[in-house]
Amino acid sequence: MRIALHKTCLSTLVAVVLLAVIAPADAEQAEALYQAECAACHGETRLGGIGPALLPGNLSRLTPEAAEAVIRHGRPASQMPAFGETLDDAAIATLAEWIYRPPVVEPRWTQQDILASQVVAHPDGSLPDVPLFDADPLNLFIVVETGDHHASLLDGDTFERIHRFETRYALHGGPKYTPDGRHVFFGSRDGWITKYDIYNMEVVAEVRAGINMRNIAVSADGRYVMAANYLPHSLVLFDAHNLDLMKVYPVVGEDGESSRVSAVYAAPPRGSFIAALKDLEEVWEIPWPLPTEPVVSTGHMATPLEKRRGHDTPNFQVRRIPVPDYLDDFFFDLEYDHVIGASRGGQGGMVVNLDSGEKVADLPLEGMPHLGSGITWEHEGRRVMATPHLTRAAVSIIDMTDWTVIKTLETDGPGFFMRSHANSPYVWVDVFFGPNRDRVHIIDKASLEIVETLIPAPGKTAAHVEFDRYGEKLLLSVWEEEGAVIVYDGDTLEEEQRIPMSKPSGKYNVWNKTRYEEGTSH
Ligand code: DHE
User: Fold this and answer.
1) Average pLDDT of span 314-336
2) Cβ contacts of 53 within 8 Å, gap of 6 or more
């Protein structure tokens, strides 16, 4: 299996450049230091333990300078101690440099490792079925706080914090709810899947699916969880009840070449998981069993299917859909007929029909469209989709009936996340990168113009919005260590409340996610 340590983000690139200029540390000395000071928590082979994995691919979000600071000062609200008083500067620098080096022995994560990692604190069905709080269980928000690796459960009507709990290190991607909204699954970059019982405010089960994971998806009936990994090159299927391992899918092409998985999503109208692959020109579709009895109603997206669409692939088997390019970042139309993908080079996109496998359109989108953040709405009788770009100060708006770009809006810098709600007249897009990262643009869905630019906290990154179930109020993150979540009125755009949080990233409303509401991520 080919294990590639791909450098996809800026901080990793910085790490690589620094490695080239720092005098190489003595490997043996570094290894000995690591074993003496770090291995007890981070694992003898750097795969992680109480602490996160310390491998180059897992450290892509951390600059070497930040790694040095963490070693020196520790991490507040975690078990990471400050080594500044026991190690001298040279030893700290040696360790900080060494953890970005690829390990001599290729890291492995086998089926046995997955099985051995599973912890079931409260077996499914063992906790009470009634929420321990009064809030509307369908209007709750989960807020991920990446500063000190916690998550908060917020009442979506009063915005009071109901519970705050520790999460695994570096959660990434949206947490995924069961259709009744009772349970939520989190995925961490280190491969951990955590199942949390919202009603009882308890972590009920955990399992580690891989070493470097992208994201997870939950089937529309809430019975299965699929994990997408970069390392190893695999998809891993679990029974959602207690996170029991069901199947490991090595991601290998017909020619034997293996691939990282870009991401996996549930496609409820197809009754299947759809995974895009980063190093193979294929999309994989893996069907889950069609329900034999009515499922809990969760809006139009979970209507039980009567028959499989476009194929007769047996349950849990892989249907390979060849595509004309590698898919990095992608999105679906409302019916899940098409996948809209960005090409690996980030200089364009394409639309592929998931039934026929044919490319139906090219998208002339330069500057790394961030299609994973795309949203859609109805505009003058047509469905349009909009996407920010990661390397271009623009938002592109596309007519989904003929896949033409109907408008390119200039912004104050490249953005990361877009959000709206079926009941809101506005789309919110952040300016995530560059000097204007404290700005958020508000686009009018009817005129397709930017009508307002907010600066909620001057000099501080403002990003990622999520609406409440009614589309009336919304939450925006001040994405800083000593940050906050701001509550806005969705119509007047007035700030109503500021809740202090530790580098809050994504916010996820139970109703919007379980109903697959328009304007939010799924
Ligand atoms: Fe993400 C979602 C990929 C960097 C924060 N990000 C996703 C998803 C994908 C993705 C495929 C959808 C998964 C899902 O929700 O199930 N992200 C990538 C990248 O390829 C990229 C550019 C590089 C990488 O390092 O992986 C990347 N992402 C980042 C960040 O740097 C962010 C800003 C900070 C962080 O915590 O890593 C970041 N990504 C997020 C968040 C979501 C996300 C908060 C969920 C958004 C949502 O609203 O659903």
Assistant:
1) 91
2) 42, 43, 46, 47, 190, 191, 211, 212
Which range is least confidently modeled, 15-29, 352-366, 477-491?
15-29
Report phi then psi at 278, rounded to 5.
-85, -30
Give the residue whose CA is nearest to atom 27 of ligand 1. 9
Whether 274 and 224 have beta carbons less than 8 Å apart is answered as no
Cα(416) to centroid(ligand 1), Å:
9
505 lines ligand 1 (CB under 6 A): yes
173 lines ligand 1 (CB under 6 A): yes
Ligand 1 centroid–CA 372 distance in Å is 8
Q: Does residue 217 fall inside a structural domain?
A: no
CATH of the domain at 89: 1.10.760
Q: How many domains does one find in the chain?
A: 1
CA-closest candidate to residue 236, choices 265, 209, 205 = 209
CA distance 228 to 262: 7
State in Å: Cα 173 to ligand 1 middle.
Answer: 5
Q: Is 519 in the pocket of ligand 1 (CB under 6 A)?
A: no
pLDDT tens-digit profile of 131-146? 999 999 999 999 999 9
* Distance between Cα 215 and ligand 1 center (Å): 9
Which ipTM value was assigned to this complex? 0.98
326 lines ligand 1 (CB under 6 A): no
For 70, the 3-state DSSP assignment is helix
Q: What is the pLDDT of residue 4?
A: 35
Does a structural domain hold residue 455?
no
pLDDT at 9: 38
pTM over 0.95: no
* C-alpha 172 to ligand 1 mean position (Å): 6
- Domain membership of residue 395 (yes or no) is no
Asked whether residue 123 is domain-assigned, the answer is no
Which range of residues forms the domain containing residue 68? Answer: 7-99
